[in-house]
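User: I want to check something. If I give you two sequences, will you return the structure for each one separately, not as a complex?

Assistant: Yes, each is folded on its own. Here is the first sequence with its structure:
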Amino acid sequence: MDIPDDYRILHLYKTKQYDECLKLCEEVLKDKNDRMIEFIRMRAMTIQVKVAANAYDEVDYFSYQDELASTAVAKTPRPGTTFDKQIRTAHQSSTNKRVSTAATMKPGGSGLTARAQSARTALRSAGRASRAATALAGGPPLNMPISLRFLPKEETTFTPAAKTLFEYVYYCEGDVRKAMDIAFQAQKSGNTSDWWWHHSLSRCYYTLGMFRQADDCLRRALKQNKHISVYLRLIAMYVALDQPISALDICKQGLLIFHDSTPLLMEQARINEQIGSSDLAVKDFRIVAIQDPFNMEAVANIAMYNFYNDQPEIAMRYYRRLLATTPPSSEIYNNLGLCCLYCSQWDLILPCFRQALFFSTSPSSKADIWFNLAHVSLSTGDMSLARRCLQVSLAIFEKEYVRQALTALEARLKTRKVNDGNYKSYT
């Protein structure tokens, strides 16, 4: 017996086979106009875009910069109250100088954490204006039927479908003002105050740069429902405004209600890490690692903290734990090789870097690995091998610090040859 198309579409949607669901919806809608099919199609498209644009991860650690914005923050804030790396206290400057120096000597030393943070930052930066519309490039078409996209508020089906309609317009079409109009109509027609609409309006205000209105909407949403997504949205807004102290206060308020919540602890740890409070950040990362042993970012940050605090043996344990709980990658083996170097486990150094080169996929990471191999060669006293490693690194990917290191090493080799010649002539 053939299964009706309606049930097939519903089954595909429930089993998260969205591509097949959308294709079948298009075929069915060519023959008839069905509101239920239109609704499922719109939901499937919205979910695809939200997953592609990672709309659930909203914190952006690049401060919002707009020369015409009336809500701009001070350009010279007090030390410890901003994410600006150029403004630090004396203790923070010395600490970060040590880390940056070590990173220059060993660019792959914190590669795993750097990769996690760069990926996180790239996804969060997509949270501006029409991030979802951009994510749909090459995806499903945006030719939704007008009968559902522009329902008047008098329609009885408008209120139940309003949330889906809002998310479709906001994420798929990228039309923020139209989404706000839908939210206002839904609030008027529903005759009830729903925290979800205040939370959704805050997204629109945030995208338009109206931060005071976004803050008011989020505060009203918190009065109606203490939901964790509202706290995360408030944290995202204050982080984007370069106000880490306010963001930390929101984290503490959320943790009073959601005790040991992993998302809130992660955001609190990231903020402390960005402002230079590494000790406080590691405490939160340790709690997260206990609750979620498979959290790669927390474990990698703990390992990096121990590595830069002259505890490579403990850092090696965490990297081995990552190797056992996550898929193998070049960053893990690269960091393991450096830990073995500083633990004087010479028999494991080259196998780790060999595996790092095997799993490396980008020219930049391969260049960093060869640069670290040059550092290993210098540790053994083989300057000629170090020079070859630096040349290979430059051949793979051009980097300024590699060229500077190669220039300094060649000058040192030249001085060494001159001294050897003078010694022979003297003898």
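And separately, the second sequence with its own structure:
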Amino acid sequence: MSSLKEESVPRCCASEADEAETPEHDPHFDPIVSLPLVDIHTNEEDEEELVKIRARLYRYDTGDHEWKERGTGDIKLLRHRSNNTVRVVMRRDKTHKVCANHFITPDIRMNVHCGSDKAFNWSVFADYADETCKQELLAIKFGNPQNAELWKAKFAEAQEIVRTKCSLYTQDQSSDDESSITRSEDTDTPEPKIVDRSPEEDGKSENIDLKDGVLLKLKELKVDGEKVE
């Protein structure tokens, strides 16, 4: 038994020594085809982010007459740096597919959805989420009332930016003002013109009037004389 114990000890030590001497095998293979990095353009490079909140988006299906889920993700308000347009953009989680993409106009109304303090709905005349222009009725639900109030406040702020700073709406306002001014000028009654006359011209005009009156009376007398005859 003693000989077996003496033989077992050196074997363990030898295996540990072999493991320490042999380095770890780390195979490395160069790729056959090298793929360069590609910059992906999201069309958001010229825009600044006003707000970004996680939410769930729905759309109303007019065919089935029911609300259908469109996606869950981060909804954003993006303001263009040069022309001051603001649009709503939302992408789905993981796939990053666009599920909302439309411009904000001053006439959009944000309504409380089904009496909830965490959901709103609004109507959009032109939404480009499906790469085609569609009129949509959208609804959104947030995780808590605080996020819902933040969204409503930022949406109203974006509408004010569009109404006061966007060139599309400021030009319309200026043209309306100019047209109202021209209309008021057209409706104004012209003031009567006062012509200065000399006393001689006034006397001449009176003489002319007298002559005209005498001639009319003479004509009447001639007519009456002819009737008597």
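Because they were folded independently, the notes below concern the second chain alone. Confidence is low (pLDDT under 50) at residues 1-7, 222-229. The CA atoms of residues 164 and 170 lie 6 Å apart.
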